[in-house]
Amino acid sequence: MTWSHFSHDADLGLRGSGRSKARAFEQIAMALTAAVTDPDSVIAEKSISLFCEAPSDELLLVDWLNTLIYEMAVRKMLFREFSVTITAGVLQAEVKGEPVNRGKHHPAVEVKGATYTALAVEQTNEGWLVQCVVDV
Amino acid sequence: MDTSKLERLDETRWRIPATGSMQVPAVIFADRDLIEDMDDKVHEQICNVCRLPGIVKSALVMPDAHWGYGFPIGGVAAFAADEGGVISAGGVGFDISCGVRLIDTGVSREAIQSVQAELAHELSRSTPAGVGSTGRIRLDDTDMDNMLTGGAKWAVAEGYGLPDDLEHIEESGCQADPDPAAVSARARRRQRNEMGTLGSGNHYLEVQYVSEVFNNSIADAYGLREGDAVISIHCGSRGLGHQIGTEFLREMAISAEKYGIKLPDRELACAPINSGLGQRYLGAMRAAVNCALANRQILTHLTRTAFAQFFPDTTLKLVYDVSHNICKEEHHVVDGESLRLHVHRKGATRALGPGSKDVPAAFRNVGQPVFIGGSMGTSSYVLAGTEAGEELAFSSACHGAGRKMSRHQARKRWRGREIADELAQDGVIVRSPSSRGIAEEAPGAYKDVTGVVDAADRAGLTTKVCRLRPMICIKG
C-alpha cells in the first residue's frame, strides 16, 4: 500500500494503491493530507464518520476526496488515519485527525476540489490503483 | 506544443482548423517561444472545447495558457443559448470569480521602503491567509443572502470600503441576477467564517511600485505614475465558490447524457444554457461572483486599516477590480451580427476597449484596465483593453505568467526559506505561514511574464500601460 503525488501543470495529482479498492482509497486520502502537510505531523486524536454514494467507482473516488476536502475546510482539521469500506457504490469511512495548528503543521496549500482529470480506479496485477488531480 | 499541427496566421496567432467533431476552429495567441513551451495538453483541451454544443466563432487560447482541467487555463469560449449553447461549470472552475484588484496607495516607493518591514508585519498580521485561517466576520443566513445578492455593494454598506470604490469594480461591484437559493447549505457552511480571507496557493496581497510606464496617457487615466506604490489583491470566492464548482461539476457530468450532450472530456461537464440546471448554475455562479467581490472588498478594508497606521493622511484609492475565472453574458458582433453570448473565461481576463459602456467613465476613452499577476519576485503588469480585442478574442486577454513547472516539481527543486532569503536580497519581503507554500510558488516555477505580456501586446489584445515590481508579498 502506497500513496504518491504526480505532476500536473497548475495543480497536483494524487495516487493511492492497495490490495483492495478500499485500501487504495485510504492511501489516496493520505496523499490528500500530504498535499497540505507532512502526514506524520498529524495526530489521530479525533474520529469522524463519513459516507458517500455514487453511480460509478470513479465518481465515488471524486466524492470521497471532495467529502474529505469539505470536512477539512469546515472543521479546520487535517486527517491521517482512514478506515474505508466500499460496498456496491457506497463508501463508509472512519477518519481520524486533529485541528489544523499552523505553527505545527505549516500547511502549504488549501485544496479547492477534486477534478475529473487523470481520474482512474483500476485493478492491477498487485491490487488496485486510484488517482485524481486536485485543484489547489 | 507540436506546431506542425497548426496554421500560423501571423507572428502571434496560430489556428487549429476544425476537424472531425470540432464545431469551430481554435486560435492560440502566442509567439514561437511561448507556443513551443506550451503543453500539448493545451492543444487537446482546446480542441475538446471546440466540440461543445453551440460554441460560436472559435475557441481561444491566451499566451499564458497551460494544462488545466477540461478547459485549458487561459481558455476563452463563447456559446449562443439560442443555438443549444452550453454553460460549463468546468469552464469556470472551482475558484469562481478569482480576480485581481489594484489599489493606488497615494504614497511613493520610498515612503513604503521607510517602513517596509513594519508594514509587512502589520499586513501579514491583519490579513487572514492560508489553510485554517478565518475571517472576523460571521454571516447568519440573512447576512449570507444579502452578501450573495449585493457583492461589494453589500460590503460597502456594511462599512467595508468607500462608495466611490464601487464605480471601479466590474459590474459596479454587484453582479446582476444571482440566485442565492441555488447555493447549497454546504457551500454556505464552507463560507460562513471565510469572508475577508485571502486563501492560499497562488493567491496573494502584494505591495508593489510602478517601475516603468509604457503609455503615459493611459497611465494618467488610471492615476498611475512611475514611483507610485500600489497594492494588488489576488483571490476569489473562497470555499463557497469551491463548493459550488464541486457540486455542479458532478451534477452536470451525470446529467449531460440526459441533455444529449456527448462530453469529449468529463471535466467539460456542462448543461444547456436554456435548461433548469444551466440556469441554476448561472444563478449560483453569479452569487459566487458577488461573494468574490465582497471578499476582495473586505480585504481592501483590512488593508486600508493597516496602512492607516503608517500613512494616516493618505486614502487608498481603488483603481479597478476584474475577475479572470467567470462566465459573463455579453453582446458581441460575429460576422456582422450582434449576438448575445455566454463567454467563459477560465484564467483569462475581460479586456474591453475604449468606448465600451461597461468600462467606468473615468477610463472609457482609454479602455478597461487588465491586471497580469507576477509571482513574488517578478513583475506584474497593468494593461489596457483594445478595440481590436473585440474582433480578435471577444475582448479577452491573459491573466498571469502561467506555470511552467508543477508544484510537485517546484517543491523538489527549492526550499521556501532560500526563496524568501533571495527575494529579501532583491528588496522583496515575503510573509507566509508555509515555507513549502513559498517553494511551490517560487518565481522560477512560472513562465516569463514579460514574454506573455509582450505577446498579448503584439497580438493587439491589450496595450501595455505599466510594469509593477513587488516590495511586500503576503501569501497564504
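The CA atoms of residues 148 and 287 of chain B lie 5 Å apart.
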